[in-house]
Amino acid sequence: MSAQPYRLATGGLIDRKRPCHFRFDGREYTGFAGDTLASALLANGVSLVGRSFKYHRPRGLLSSGAEEPNALIELRRGAAREPNTRATTIELFDGLEAQSQNRWPSLGFDLLSLNRWAAPFLGAGFYYKTFMWPASFWEKVYEPLIRRAAGLGRAAGADDPDHYEKSFAHCDILVIGAGPAGLMAALTAGRAGARIILANEDFAAGGQLHGDGGNINGTAAAAWVNGVIAELAAMPHVQIMPRTTIYGVYDGATYGAVERVNDHLLSVPAFEPRQRHWRIHARRAVLASGAGERPLMFANNDLPGIMLASAARTYLQRFAVKPAGRVVIATSCDDGWASVDAALAAGVAIAAIVDTRSEVDEALLSLGRRSGAAIYCGGDVVKAHGGHRVGAITIRNATGSNTRHACDGVWMSGGFSPLIHLTSHLGARPQWDEQLQAFVPGQNLPAGLAVAGAACGDFALGACIAAGQRAGIEAAQACGFSAPAAEPILCPETSAAVGVITLPRTAAGPVFVDFQNDVTAKDIALAAREGYSSPELAKRYTTLGMATDQGKTANINGMALLAAARGKSIAQTGTTVYRPPYTPVSFGALAGHHRSKDFRATRLTPAHHWAQEQGAVFMEAGAWMRAAWFPKAGESDWVESVIRETKATRSSVGLCDVSTLGKIDIQGADAGVFLDRVYCNTFSTLAVGRARYGLMLREDGFVMDDGTTSRLAPAHFLMTTTTSNASKVMQHLEFCHQALWPDLDLHMVSVSEHWAQYSLAGPRSRDVLQRLVDRQHDISNEAFPYMGAREITISGGLPARLYRISFSGELAYELAVPARYGDATVRALMAAGGEFGITPYGLETLNAMRIEKGHVTGSELNGTTTARDLGLGRMMSTKKHYIGRVMEERPALRDERRWQLVGLKPVDRSHRLKAGGHLVGRHEPAVTANDQGYVTSASYSPMLEQWIGLGLLSAGDKRHGEIIRACDLLRQSEVEVEVCNPVFFDPKGERLHG
Amino acid sequence: MRIGCPYCGERWNDEFVVLGDADAMMKHPAEATFALFYDYVYLRDNPAGRHRELWYHQGGCRQWLVVTRDTLTHAVHGVETARCAAQDIEAAS
């Protein structure tokens, strides 16, 4: 095990007493608590961390934060493996395992790096131009090849073993970022009493203060940060959320956030989530996201060892790691010179300092001269040399002559760009600020959002702190708090970070602009030349900014190149607009607990456990679990169970749980009038104690739903709906009442879950019921005929409702009891029916029996059928107005060629019929042009002893007796069928009245 | 987006179900003609800007609301119950 050869002896915000052992590409290393994976790798001398997307070029760490384009790795193993994770944001923990990606066979020796010799051919638009034909090659040849060659990490390929949560939060002020500006905003507003959420992407507060150090108010920056955090933590109305990224701004002052609750631990503690997704509603927000440094553009600027100057200082001072031994500092702004002191303090030799500006402040120059470095003002870097790491660079001085300097690191600064992504999530366009040489937040910011500090162009530390205080005061006042005046804070005067964007002057090799997507300066010039010259077009043609880092280090350089290629200024060409998410969000966090069986709640009927005890096989019906059949020993196929259940029901008595039907209680003086308007048939004339089948249309004339509605009292109706439409019908009725006819005197409420309901069907059903129903209620055929509906009591006083309605075509009842008595009632019914051989049946038997009777259900009430199509045309009243009446009369809906409900019987009784098959003429080919309808429902009929079905057939009413074919091309089945009356069994309905 | 329900207060939009143009859908045609009903059922404007829409507070009080929403910015400029709006429509006609 190595001893961290590049770790400095002292300093850094790391805990040297807590070593963390970790593996990268199978090799063991050690770092410390407080490290990121990136800083720990650097401490161990690992500078090659990845291969580039397209050309497989060796890549090292460019940055130290969320903007990192190169160091994408696969974190963890097996099912927990997470691809494309930035090593710069992974908090090191003991036992961490990570692997580099997009290399084969190894990171050091990658065969596909041959791609870079093909680089001249792989420029922008290469795929569009090359893989044009033959079209069939795209899917089979080109795409698999390209996917293998160009790619990122591998998905785990197994279910994520961890849990994720969704949470909601509300606050007065959301402060985004805990650098100097964010801390001051939170502190100032917190002292005023506002409820604050301080969200910080990093695990440590302080932002760039940890890279640049210095004293604030007389104490070291790190101690000052700790003091502010301690004061905030002591305020009960302030919530500090470290490891939390605000990734998006949404309408209504809503912010999306991901909190990495346990990503920094080897395994997630029991009952805790790995990540938590937050939806935060904040009256005001302060964006203090800071600024990001821009790379310089020169040939081979992507070699490992070349990194952003501010990142190098962060590695030196926050992590006490020496990223290089001998460096060249290349800059286009004063801030780059801040690296000189940092390098010398850590014992890093400086070979040369290049500033692209000809005029540089004398104080900086004397600082540089003291370091012993060669200084080039008005010069630039021409090219970096090296294989797996930079070994030398060639610098051109102001007069144009080249010098080569040996080095193992280049620290570059092309100036800073404010991190303004969140400001444009609702559409505001960034504005170019010529003075700052950067895009700054534009007009029309999201309501309530203010920007402070470096994110707004206040690059100097003093300005940053003052801006944070100001933003805190303004936000607190806007929320109704009186904020005290800001107290002055003493801090070092930092150098200006305004950098001139310097375009590459020579083409001595590939000049990378977008490191993650391998977009070079040449690609951008090519896009402009070929006409893709607006920022949005150039982005898509070259893929600039389209990788997982969304071009955080690339976009502004890219826009500068594009503007130059068109001979315009950046202000004239503009930029692309940022969209959420700011950094990638895992699907796990967005899904939370809503996955697999927990995708939505499962609804169980009160008799569910009873059905389980009977060995029921369940199926999902919407959110409900319903018994599909009850297999007995020896039955190997559901058809066998259906035959037994049907025959038992039709010969004696069967029981089915129908609790899932929608039930709506409607009461009021105008309830009957209301029902007349929402149903196509009449209900105001229904006698108390009677039920009626009702058909509800949509306003466009098509059928919406059906069900029976009973009148329990003059002003009291109980409507039933199909299981699947229960909430839709409720919503529709509420709309009709509240928005169309608010004057009608009625109230309604859904009582679907209040009542457990059981269907008893078969010639002995009344015999069973009579053993439960209390004596005073006469349920004889005369006293309680077909379509009776009555409130009764059972088992000695339990209130219940009894309906004599039938879906099976048998003498049948539905008995409803309060839900909490459902389980007891089903057991009592089974006991009472014992001597008649009562048989529980499930959805499959229900379906077989209703198809035998030609009753329609969701398969036929599918939103494309009218009452006429279903043979229910006579139900539509001509004496009243109701929803759907006018549009139902449209001539096209009365066309005789419309698809109408028919029965279908295979000509060969041994053939099986399947729902979904399309109907064509007996001798016609099965092609779309000959399509005459389809099979909507099919089942084996125990009574007819063959497969039967219902279907919708063009002009079907007039074609009974005709032989046609049902063709199911997906399942390769073709069956000759006879068209017949949809009522297969007991067509006169004699059994109902038994 | 958040909607201020007159009964329940300001709530996240996922408690609500949207139906569409309130003024179009709440004005049932006075005469039963195809032309009037065709417009009523199918014809909708798609304005850029303020739009009165029907939203149902399914995850709350089950009231239908008329929400005045800017379709360009999603800003909510006013909320009233459909019941009140319907009475206004009736009074105006």
TrEMBL record, chain A:
Residues 608-880 form the GCVT N-terminal domain. Keywords: Oxidoreductase. One of its GO terms (biological process) is tetrahydrofolate metabolic process. InterPro entries: 2Fe-2S-bd_N (IPR042204), BFD-like_2Fe2S-bd_dom_sf (IPR041854), FAD/NAD-bd_sf (IPR036188), GcvT/YgfZ/DmdA (IPR028896), GcvT/YgfZ_C (IPR029043), GcvT_C (IPR013977), GCVT_N (IPR006222), Sarcosine_oxidase_asu (IPR006277). Residues 900-986 form the Aminomethyltransferase C-terminal domain. It comes from the Bacteria. Pfam families: FAD_oxidored, Fer2_4, GCV_T, GCV_T_C, SO_alpha_A3. One of its GO terms (molecular function) is sarcosine oxidase activity. Residues 511-592 form the SoxA A3 domain. Belongs to the GcvT family. NCBIfam families: soxA. This is Sarcosine oxidase subunit alpha.
Automatic annotation (TrEMBL), chain B:
GO terms for biological process: tetrahydrofolate metabolic process. GO terms for molecular function: sarcosine oxidase activity. Gene3D superfamilies: Folate-binding superfamily. This is Sarcosine oxidase subunit delta.
